[in-house]
Amino acid sequence: MANNIIEIKDVTKEYDGKTVVRNESISIKHGEFVTLLGPSGCGKTTTLRMIAGFEKPTSGRIYFDGEDITDLPPHKRPVNTVFQKYALFPHLNVFNNIAFGLKLKTIPDGTTYTDKKGRTFDNMRKYTKAEIAEKVNHALKMVDLEDYGHRDVNSLSGGQQQRVAIARAIVNEPKLLLLDEPLGALDLKMRKDMQIELMDMHKRLGITFVYVTHDQEEALTMSDTIVVMRDGEVQQIGTPRKIYDEPANAFVADFIGESNIVSGIMIDDYKCSFIGTEFECVDKGFKPNEPVDIIVRPEDIYITKGKNAEKGQLTATVTSCVFKGDHYDILCDANGNELQIVENTECNVGEEIGIFIPKEEIHIMHKSRIINEYETEMQEDGVVKMCEADFKTQSTLPAGTKVKVSVPFNKIDVTDDEADGTVGADVVSSIYKGSYYQVILRTDYDYDFFVDTEDEWLKGDRVGINIKPEDIIVEAL
Amino acid sequence: MKEKLKKFRFTRKAFAYPYMLFLLIFVVTPLVLILANAFIYDGKFSFKNFAIFFTEKSSLVVLGNSILVGLLTTIICIVVGYPAAYFLARYSASKIFVLLFILPMWVNFLIRTLATKAIFVSLNVPLGMGTVVFGMVYNYLPFMILPLHTVLSSIDKNYIEAAEDLGADRFQVFTKTILPLSLPGILSGITMVFIPTISTFAISQLLSDSTVFLFGDSIQMKFDQGLYGVGSVMSLVMIIIVLISNFVLNRFSKTNTVSGGRTLW
Fold first, then answer.
1. Inter-chain contact A90–B258, Cβ cutoff 8 Å?
2. pLDDT tier at B262 (50, 70, 90 boundaries)?
3. Do B27 and B124 share a structural domain?
4. Residue B78 domain flag
5. What is the pTM for the complete model shown?
6. Which uninterrupted H or E stretch holds B29?
7. B4 in the same domain as B94
């Protein structure tokens, strides 16, 4: 605890009954560069705003250096923020923008006074003009804008405004600097430069950085620790290396870098089977024959060509080969599964290649769900209610019986038009699993249907769900 | 024939002609007439009108009074209007409130003023300077609130959060960000209130039973008495005051171009 500058404990944040952050617990060590990473709407910015004090958690506490700051207003927190849109004050020039915080600050002047009860306090004073000027000029120097003090902030380029925003925050010497997608508005080249500068600054200043981004590459490049978030929940916390090499689940694997995600079976300890082939692996502790998700990074697949093709663990047919400058991006068909491979040698479309995957590179994960389950009550005539919609089944159980309804992933029909389905839902996730897409459909009643389908559905689309009566398995509870 | 057709081509510019004509007849011509009248005394060119105005102590007092009433009205409008506009913008929960503030503007100001007078009379409030200023504030308050409301509701919440983040408490957030950022609104409000109040005449006549005499009133009286020359001189003085205050306010807002030099009104 003493080692942690920020401790977020079981924090939940709701807006109008909608949960944006759920049971979040994160610890941030002194001097760390921590990145909150996730797609938009995952709760990363809300988390940052709760640390800054702009939002109050609905439940849970936030500690700063062991002290509860959950109810402290932003201006009393020893934290400064670099805002996404910079938020430089348009009525002040560069110098006065940076001096803004310093002019408000009071510091002990070295003398003390004792009140009637015998308590001793420091006498406080404001910074003098000369001190402010010195600090501001020093900050300007840090961000390479030495001669820009008198400039109007609106006359600066995006990158320069960004630097002013950073200078305005660090000049206050905060213990913790929060950065909310600070490079989002910059072009690629500038972004790369600023990434390096920020990392450099982090090293020189020795203060803790909490950085929010949706750019996984940025996160991998800059951070000591990455917190991957999705739908308001922390998916994984770890070093960039660990998150890349050992993603905790299919979402993390899909979000961080390119990856092949396929369904497989854990036959036994150290032995798994996928794309119709048995592989050795380094994982154990799964149930025998447990269905699992298997993740292999494209650069971890090795290929053999020509006569040696047969020597691979399995063979595949190349379906596409694209030159990417420093490598070739190869797509191939292996027993009906699509695999992506990064290779240095060119392949021809239609060519047979041998595939070899080292056992350390096969990452095995529990499936978050293997069948859709829903607990409900029987209605008349074998109808069950799921998400307030009536589904016909072949069950003959009497009305009022409590039942568990199960529907396999691949037995759900998705319709383009919500009106064609029994119940409407939003596509919240779509992950390609080699030969099919695993789509998560969220109904308005907060239930997620997992669907395996050959069609690609776009995230955010509104669709309808149909299930054939014979595909609904009903069990009395 | 062909050339003629070309000459009379109906371009978009043509739509502006009717109003141009209107401007010419009802704005430019009267201005020229006033200018000419000011220099005509007894049918001859002369500076006598100016001499009469600037030596007549009573008309200078009236001018001073008018400026005083204008300043007073403007200050009261800012003091009353700013908090109103601030809360309207901050808690923009109901558009009905905004509507309530604008609603009086849709009633003819003479009717409003007469109604105000009737209320004062029935309450036995003595008519005089106080009631005149009240009438002015009542009539011009919406012109202060509207530009302020526009500016205040367009202030990016990010600035407020940035100020809080940098250590400003609520009061400092207001004085260091909201107030300076709303300066353009204050300036437009002043323009919209001060300039019309110094030239108004009906409000002062009605709400003081003609005991309070403002500059607008005395110009009107001079013309009523057939003293076109002196009346014109006074009008010129009025115009010059308007131009000066406009110039000063513009200068002021130019040095404070906030939110990309956006102009209001």
1. yes
2. very low
3. no
4. yes
5. 0.74
6. helix B29-38
7. no
